[in-house]
Write a structure and sequence with these properties.
- The structure holds 2 protein chains of 2 kinds.
- By secondary structure, chain A is mostly beta strands.
- Chain A is built from 11 helices and 65 strands.
- Among the domains of chain A are: 710-834; 839-936, no CATH class.
- Among the domains of chain B are: 15-78, Phosphatidylinositol 3-kinase Catalytic Subunit, Chain A, domain 1 (Ubiquitin-like (UB roll), Roll); 118-228, Pdz3 Domain.
- Chain B has helices spanning 15-25, 50-59, 87-95, 177-181, 203-212, 248-266, 318-330; strands at residues 2-8, 33-38, 44-47, 63-70, 118-121, 131-135, 146-157, 160-172, 189-193, 196-197, 217-222, 271-274, 279-281, 295-303.
- In chain B, strand 9 and strand 10 form a beta hairpin.
- Chain B is elongated.
- The chains are: A mainly beta, B alpha+beta.
- Chains A and B meet through strand 49, strand 53, strand 56 and helix 9 of A and strand 7, helix 5 and strand 12 of B.
- Strand 49 (698-701) of chain A pairs antiparallel with strand 7 of chain B, so a sheet runs across the interface.
- Chain A: Belongs to the WD repeat L(2)GL family.
């Protein structure tokens, strides 16, 4: 009866599917794209980052993460935590305020938006009246002071956001007792900064952009002190005891002001231009931190000499005679200092500085000598150099894991030993079930090894392939090599460096064998490196071979890039993965597919011209096969190179711009500029859209033919021990699939281990299959007699997999972009197929075998195919019957780079890039789920006296 | 009647001799007959000159099935792509002479040695404003030759007229298959591709679907020019002779099944080359013997009657039948495309 039931209506199977499959986007790894605001709560010890797309992310101790998204998707301008509360307020660029809360649900905390509010002025008033420029959450926890562009300060009650109109501080009231000559020279203009007095919550300091600063008594609604600044104000900071405050200015100066009851209109104590005497850029934020030894820490952002260092993104730390100007790789969004927040403590005693730059987070240890950087457990800059490919390896054996960590720790010696200073919240997630590695290949020729086991993706080890080659890059071209006496005392910090000196170094394919520690890496200029893990530094010669993939083709000219030049003689390699073989494809086109068989000691590689097999034990090329159609001129000449060279020139011009650019950093100026730019962009987009409507896109409908371009492009390579010639003897084989729908199968003869070095590996073509629909072949897989995919090399030897069934007949699964097809072996006849494109119009982009375990019982698991289509859907397809199990929308179909970057794990999880710097992690499995699970408890209040609480002050007005 | 005899594959001789042989074998020396054979794709193709005769012999694997019909009452529409996938119908119709006996076709032109390149199908079940066109890319070397674009069309909904996005034909390549059929035109709205509605699908999705189905593309369009639509009530004025109401239900049913079979059939054609040997079609069943014999056996089916109707609908419409016939003329014998297997050589 079963066969009369329509597929998908078997209730038993339906129930099982519910136990096996479930789709969740679990966590975002990496660094937020386009961060725009930073906030910190010393009370919760949580940091918040807002982005230009309206996302807000909270981070505490490793594993403690929360994310929220503003519906409006507007830029987050400011973030302020409410003192001693699990609440925060965000200001968006549409002038709306949002109150967020961390609420506990069934033991875990969640971030929720509670309320939103837009300040409304009296009828008929200009919009600037209510344009919020500064926010101060008062330590009383129920009042929010809102400074505006008009110079008024409004007071809103929390959590209702009800405006207390009688408490509004109007600029007219402030100006009443200001001397006339000062008043005439300048009006108040906008409120730049609001600061609560550290000891007396009834006093707030209001700073106006033209330089006037007043101390306002909240109870009596009157000005107590006037400070007549002469320079355009940027920001304010109270000293801990409230006897002095410090103001910083647009001209690169800062000023100390005394606050005493004797003088209601005091003169400045000290006025300094730290990087004078030549004109300097603005100091946009300043900290004055007291210490036990009496020497304060003065920490300020900006202030560099305008002409010579105006393009630097710097923060200077001055402590006695020590002074360092930390030079960041990208624009500084904001920063904060972690210091003693105990109300009873006498001194600030700063311990760390946390800097949010546009492309990375940098934390500086202020306690240790030399102020080293702290290795961040999260928010890694995945895009230090652009990611070009990714490779995931599940369930790493402990031995290899430890060796990689030890190699990595030797690279990280310059980091501080300080424990991570942002440690709020408690991570409740269970320990990750297994050790997983995510390998990312980068444009600069590096491979980064990330611990992808848990919620915090962090860097374990970085491998560079550059050393093998001679490149144009001048090793002395290091901006960091400044002499001791250089002024200003700049010090480069951070790892973000998107400028690759030679795009040919880019990594395109990675294959790691977790059992043997062999790693194969292939790149843009046809280079294939085979490496071995070595725990010690070593100096050795890399064996070099060339694979001419066009052996029998005559009279062509490769117009693409040249192949990389290699270093002669021995090369010194640091501990870690060290290359011992280099194969260079000729012509040096991008390597498009790579396979490594660590047991047979063979590596296979393919480009747009053909593929080859290399014996890395004997260091001998076994064979090459040209797959190129003779008429395919485009592939012959290498059109990609033209794109690359354009990219290179663009990169160079960007670099020039970067060096010469004088960043306009002033908020209003910058704000004005960006909005103009945005408007122009929007207009351009609209024009482009209109144009598209006038001349609509059209698509050619044409059957594919053998003469199409790039049919020879090798898309996939696969090693299998299977029945290729007859059903009685199985043998090693290599399978290759091309863009033109051709599958080649080669029979391999690998000598037995004892004669491995004596006899050559032989290969002979056994089969060639031309799929009539000619769609690109993206996956090849052999299923054993039990219809289980063949195990990975060495998996059986390590007792981690059952031996494949060599009794029953094997089957071949060929996945093309358009359909999945199962053939019998050794005689290839088609058995069944699943069409995707013809029926749904979607094309296969990524396919992998994943093992799904049941969430109910530990003893049931099955292998299925996880397929990502060009529409961004993920489909799970059963093996071996190719029945669609379930379909989930995952990535927007317009997000081409997201779809291209997707990588599946062996246990039904996956990663894809949601921005150049962030991976979204998702799970298709009910069993393997890595997601943040954490709780933030309100710490017990040490004192009811809020006077000494500093958190309100800490949430300084963001400036950038 | 069936006859079975053998020929030497390497020396098939001339068509005239073969024709004589057939007449001799069937003992019908003075009867004019039409000779057809089934090719590897299951199509009934004519044999009437040396070229297609040689081609036919070379495709024998190892049997070659030959059909002969008496010329005066032969059914020309039986020839063409996918005709043998409908074998049952052909045979049923051919073998049951009493069923649906009709007056002979008006022969517009002889289906010499060509195959159809397009047809209008399912006229009976579609609204009059729609047209379902089948393009037989497989039978020709011509490019499909058309482009599609996004656009908007107006639909009647309960809420009144509504503008909805649609896919339209934007360009026909001169000399391409699409243009030469005369059945598709610029600004025709594409409604379905091989039976699947395109509404809600993006231009790229529809493009991919069409390309994936390009060997047997069936597109349902709403022609921009609605003046040439079939007017069903005046069907009897047509010359197709297929207008009896009684035949409609079965004809429709046939179309549906044929359509599916045809689709299944059309890409079961992957080629496998074993050990650098001769290219072969990948067998669907396990029956085929591997070695080629030098002697070709032929299975002959002689039948002197003609059928009633066939679901193939190119003769349903006067004007289209005419244009197709014209197309046949200029699209002269060219069976290279039958040899897809030889595209791949080592």
């Amino acid at each position: 009866m079963r066969r009369f039931l329509r597929p998908g209506h078997d209730p038993v199977r339906e129930r099982l599917k519910r136990d096996l499959f479930q789709f969740n986007k679990t966590v975002e790894h990496g660094f937020p794209h386009q961060p725009s605001a930073l906030g910190y709560s010393p009370f919760l010890r949580l940091m918040a980052i807002g982005t230009r797309s309206g996302a807000i992310k909270l981070y505490g101790a490793p594993g403690v993460e929360f994310m929220g998204l503003h519906e409006e998707n507007n830029t987050v301008m400011q973030i302020h935590f409410i003192p001693e509360q699990c609440q925060l307020v965000t200001l968006l660029d549409d002038n709306s305020l949002h109150l967020w809360s961390l609420k506990q649900h069934s033991g875990a905390s969640e971030l929720q938006e509670e309320r939103r509010f837009t300040l409304k002025g009296p009828p008929g008033s200009p919009p600037s009246t209510t344009q919020i420029t500064a926010v101060l959450p008062h330590s009383s926890r129920d009042l929010l002071y809102l400074g505006t562009e008009s110079g008024s300060v409004f007071v809103a009650e929390l959590p209702s956001f009800r405006v207390l109109e009688d408490k509004t501080v109007l600029s007219e009231a402030v100006l009443q007792r200001v001397p006339d000559d000062y008043c005439n020279r300048r009006s108040c203009e906008l409120v730049e900064a609001l600061r609560e007095h550290p000891k007396n919550p009834n006093l707030i300091l209001i700073g106006y952009s033209r330089g006037l600063i007043v101390l306002w008594d909240l109870q009596n609604s009157q000005v107590t002190h006037h400070f007549l600044g002469s320079q355009q104000l940027e920001n304010l900071y109270w000293q801990r005891d409230g006897s002095k405050f410090i103001s910083c200015h647009y001209d690169g100066s800062y000023t100390q002001w005394p606050v005493s009851n004797d003088n209601r209109q005091p003169e400045p104590l000290e006025n300094l231009v730290p990087y004078g005497p030549f004109p300097c850029k603005a100091i946009s934020k300043i900290y004055w931190q007291t210490t036990k030894n009496g020497l304060p820490y003065i920490i300020f952002q900006g202030g560099m000499p305008r002409a010579s260092y105006g393009d630097r993104h710097s923060i200077s730390v001055i402590h006695g005679s020590q002074q360092t100007a930390f030079d960041f790789t990208s624009r500084v969004i904001d920063f904060f200092i972690i210091f003693s927040s105990e109300p009873t403590a006498e001194f600030d005693d700063p311990s760390a500085m946390v800097v949010l730059a546009e492309e990375e987070l940098v934390v500086i240890d202020l306690k240790s000598a030399g102020w080293p950087a702290v290795h961040a457990p999260y928010l890694a800059s995945l895009h230090c150099s652009a990611i070009t490919c990714s490779h995931h390896v599940s369930n790493i054996p402990l031995k290899l894991w430890e060796r990689i960590i030890s190699a990595g720790s030797k690279q990280n010696v310059h980091y501080s030993n300080m424990p991570w200073p942002i440690d709020g919240g408690t991570n409740l997630a269970p320990d990750p079930p297994q050790r997983d590695l995510l390998l990312t290949g980068h444009e600069d020729g590096t491979v980064r090894f990330w611990d992808a086991s848990g919620v915090c993706l962090h860097l374990l080890y970085k491998l560079s392939t550059v050393r093998v080659f001679l490149t144009d890059a001048d090793p002395n071209d290091n901006m960091n090599t400044l002499g001791e006496d250089e002024w200003p005392p700049l010090r480069k910090v951070g790892t973000f460096d998107p400028y690759s000196d030679d795009p040919r170094l880019g990594i395109q394919k990675i294959y790691l064998c977790k059992y043997s520690g062999y790693l194969a890496v292939a790149g843009t200029a046809g280079q294939v490196l085979v490496m071995e893990l070595n725990d010690e530094d070593a100096e050795h010669v890399v064996d070099h071979a060339e694979a001419d993939l066009l052996q029998d083709q005559e009279g062509y000219r490769w117009k693409g890039h040249e192949r990389l030049k290699t270093r002669d003689g021995p090369v010194r390699f640091e501990a870690g993965f060290q290359p011992f073989v280099l194969v260079q494809c000729q012509p040096p086109a991008v390597v498009t597919s790579l396979a490594l068989h660590s047991e047979w000691k063979l590596v296979a590689f393919g480009t747009s011209h053909g593929f080859g097999l290399f014996d890395h034990q004997q260091k001998r090329l076994v064979f090459v096969k040209c797959t190129l159609h003779p008429s395919d001129q485009l592939a012959l000449e290498g059109p990609l190179s033209r794109v690359k060279s354009l990219k290179k020139s663009l990169r160079q011009s960007f670099r020039r711009i970067r060096r010469s650019r004088v960043s306009s950093r002033k908020r209003r100026g910058a704000g004005g500029n960006t909005s103009e730019v945005q408007e122009a962009n929007a207009k351009f987009d609209q024009d482009a859209l209109q144009e598209m409507e006038l001349a609509p896109v059209q698509r050619k409908i044409e059957a594919r033919s053998a003469e199409d371009s790039f049919t020879g492009f090798v898309r996939t390579l696969y090693f299998a021990d299977t029945f290729l010639r007859d059903s009685s003897r199985h043998c090693p084989s290599l399978w290759a699939g091309t863009n033109g729908g051709t599958v080649y199968a080669f029979c391999l003869r690998v000598p037995p281990a004892e004669r491995r070095m004596d006899e050559p590996v032989r290969a002979e073509q056994a089969k060639e299959i031309q799929l009539m629909h000619r769609a690109p072949v993206v996956g090849i897989l052999v299923l054993d007699g039990r219809s289980t995919p063949l195990p990975e090399p060495l998996e059986v030897a390590h007792d981690l997999s059952k031996s494949p069934d060599m009794q029953g007949s094997h089957q071949l699964l060929v996945v093309s972009e358009e359909q999945l097809k199962v053939f019998t072996l050794p005689k290839v006849s088609s058995k069944l197929k699943l069409k995707l494109t013809a029926l749904e119009g979607c094309r296969v982009r990524k396919v992998t075998v994943a093992n799904f375990g049941s969430c109910r019982t530990n003893d049931y698991s099955e292998n299925d195919l996880a397929v990502l289509t060009n529409l961004g859907d993920i489909q799970i397809i059963s093996l071996p019957f190719l029945k669609l199990q379930i379909r989930y929308p995952c990535i927007r179909k317009e997000d081409v780079s997201g779809i291209a970057s997707c990588v599946f794990t062996k246990y039904g999880q996956g990663f894809y890039l949601i921005s150049p710097s962030e991976f979204e992690r998702f799970s298709l499995s009910t069993k393997w789920l890595v997601e943040p699970q954490c709780v933030v408890d309100v710490p017990e209040l040490t004192s009811n006296n809020h006077v000494n609480n500093r958190s309100g002050v800490e949430n300084a007005t963001r400036k950038s | 009647e069936f006859r079975r005899f053998s020929l030497e594959r390497s020396k098939p001789g001339k068509f005239e001799e073969f024709y004589g042989l057939l007449q001799h074998v069937h003992k019908i020396p003075n009867v004019d007959v039409l000779v057809g054979y089934t090719d590897i794709h299951g199509d009934l193709l004519p044999i009437n000159n040396d070229d297609n005769y040689h081609k036919a012999v070379s495709t024998a694997n190892p049997l070659l099935r030959i059909f002969i019909q008496r010329k005066e009452d032969a059914d020309y529409s039986a020839f063409g792509t996918d005709t043998m996938t409908r074998k049952k119908n052909v045979l049923a119709n051919v073998l049951r002479p009493d069923n649906h006996r009709k007056k002979p076709h008006i022969v517009i032109s002889m289906p010499q040695d060509f195959r159809p390149v397009s047809s209008i199908i399912d006229v009976d079940i579609l609204p009059e404003t729609h047209r379902r066109v089948r393009l037989y890319k497989y039978g020709t070397d011509k490019p499909l030759g058309f482009y599609i674009r996004d656009g908007s069309s107006v639909r009647v909904t309960p809420q009144g007229l509504e503008k909805v996005p649609g896919i339209f034909i934007s360009r026909l390549v001169p000399g391409g298959l699409a243009q030469s059929t005369g059945l598709l035109a610029v600004n025709d709205e594409v409604l379905e591709v091989n039976g699947i509605e395109v509404s809600g699908k993006s231009l790229d999705q529809v493009t991919d679907m069409m390309i994936a189905n390009s060997r047997n593309l069936i597109i349902t369009v709403r022609p921009a020019n609605q003046r040439n639509n079939v007017v069903r009530n005046s069907r009897t004025s047509g010359s197709s002779g297929q207008s009896t109401e009684s035949s409609l239900p079965s004809s429709t049913a046939n179309i549906v099944t044929n359509f599916l079979q045809g689709e299944e059939e059309s890409d079961e054609e992957d080629i496998i080359i074993e050990d650098s040997g001769e290219p072969q079609q990948i067998p669907k069943a396990v029956c085929a013997s591997e070695s080629l014999e030098s002697l070709t056996q032929m299975e002959l089916l002689h039948d002197s009657t003609q059928n009633g109707f066939l679901p193939s609908s190119e003769t349903n419409l006067n004007h289209s039948a005419g244009s197709i016939s014209m197309e046949y003329e200029e699209h002269h014998p060219d069976h290279k495309s039958l040899e897809d297997g030889t595209i791949i050589t080592l």
